[in-house]
Amino acid sequence: MKKTKPASRGSVLKNKGVPKDVDGYLACVPQPARKALQNLRATIRSVVPAETTEVISYGIPMFKYKGYLVGYAAFSNHCSLFPMGSSVIKLFKKELEGFPTSKGTIRFTVEKPLPTSLVRKLVKARIAQNEHKK
Prior knowledge:
Elements: H1 22-28, H2 33-45, E1 53-57, E2 60-64, E3 68-74, E4 79-82, H3 87-91, E5 101-102, E6 105-108, H4 116-133
Antiparallel strand pairs: 1-2, 2-3, 3-4, 4-6, 5-6
């Protein structure tokens, strides 16, 4: 089994160590960010195949299906969704207007979460990418 890396700098968990599982990670996230991440997790779980697993990798929750699909994390001033590469972010660039993005990160706040329908589209696109690369 892979070892997990410490939570990244700026993470709300940076002084709390690496959680053993996703529930442990979420338990350490303060409200209201915890609720935002729980909602994001539920949305992702609603569209991933049954054989998808949830793991802690790089100190954050990740979904794996034929490779990494997406990860998410809470930080002091925002939350992030990591769709594991820039191609999905480029694909949905228009719909992501209003959300800060970088090469592999989509940032959002608890006051302005990512729309559920957009999260579903992002995850489905990542599933398709992973299915086609194998």
